[in-house]
Amino acid sequence: MDQTTGLTINDRHLAIGRLSTFIAQSVDEARAVEKPFFHLEFDRVFPDAIYAQILALKPESRDYRPMHGRSKGHDLDDGTHTRVKIDLFPEYIRNLPPEKRALWDVVGGALCSEPVKQAFIRRLTPGLSKRFGKDFADVGLFPIPILTRDIPGYLITPHTDTRWKGITVQLYLPADANNTDIGTIFHDVLPDGSMPKHTQMRFVPNTGYAFAVGTDTWHSADAVHNRVKSRDSILLTYFVDQGLLRFLRNRGKRLGNFLLSEWRHRF
Asked: Measured between alpha carbons, how far is 258 from 185 in angstroms, rounded to an integer?
């Protein structure tokens, strides 16, 4: 029987534990790159068998809902949303078919695990300490993993992420390496205010990047071209979870998104 199908509670915990250990090791082994800002680059985020299941068990288009924020401004003229998402929390994926639900429950649980979070904190020390100071490890971080799908026409202009965020992670999920040119772009910032391209992540299977959000973490994405049906990835965002306002905001956002998802599914 497939390891993600029909899991008991104990089996689920074991599967999440095994996967979180693998992902944490992948983070520990990631390349550290200093320019244009400190970031990590991954070569093999998931075990091969799990990655094959991720490709085979992606949700259907109807399971996603529109992504808001900056991406909303890049909807097509006919109203088509160029970026959609599904949150990888149990309450969001509960309407998926059993085999898909079991897989994405384990993936989401592993990405939200403490070992994975601690691995990111260890490896992103330069960026986190630059922003939060010597006590950066004591800053609370609230993980939200989402499965995203971008279609041709999606783009996002150079920006730094909102200060509500502490760490940004993107994990690429293509089936092949035929479209390496649609990865995220990192920018230099020159004295004259211009932001030329410094580095572009290669959009290849089972790879990704991570950085601690700062005032210098300028990045963008060129328009997804028509040679691809979709650009699929996981966005794992660690929101700053320090102080009552942020604590309530993070949990309220999760609850609010759940209610929107349920409304959409039912009506």
From this structure: 31
CA dihedral 164, 250, 221, 74 (to 10 degrees): -110
Q: Cα 118 to the chain's mean position, in Å?
A: 16
Q: What is the pLDDT of residue 10?
A: 81
User: φ, ψ for residue 83 (rounded to 5)?
Assistant: -135, 125
The reported pLDDT for the residue numbered 188 is 96
- Residue pair 184/161 in contact (Cβ under 8 Å)? The answer is no
**Cα separation of 267 and 264, whole Å?**
5
Q: Domains in the chain, start-ordered, CATH in brackets? A: 9-266 (2.60.120.620)
Question: What is the distance between the alpha carbons of residues 28 and 109, in angstroms, rounded to a whole number?
Answer: 19
Residue 87 pairs in a beta bridge with 146
Q: How far apart, in whole angstroms, are the C-alpha atoms of residue 233 and residue 123?
A: 22
Query: Which one, of 89, 99, 214, lies nearest residue 142 by Cα?
Result: 89
Please give the pLDDT value at position 3.
41
- For the four alpha carbons of 226, 227, 230 and 234, in that order, the dihedral sign comes to negative
Question: What are the tens digits of pLDDT across the range 110-123?
Answer: 999 999 999 999 99
CA distance linking residue 93 with residue 88, whole number of Å: 7
Instruction: Give residue 206's region: left, alpha or beta (phi > 0; psi -120 to 50).
Output: left
The residue whose two tokens read 């920006």 is 159
For the chain, residues with pLDDT lower than 50 are 1-5
Tell me: the pLDDT tens digits for 23-60?
999 999 999 999 999 999 999 999 999 999 999 999 99
* Global pTM value: 0.90
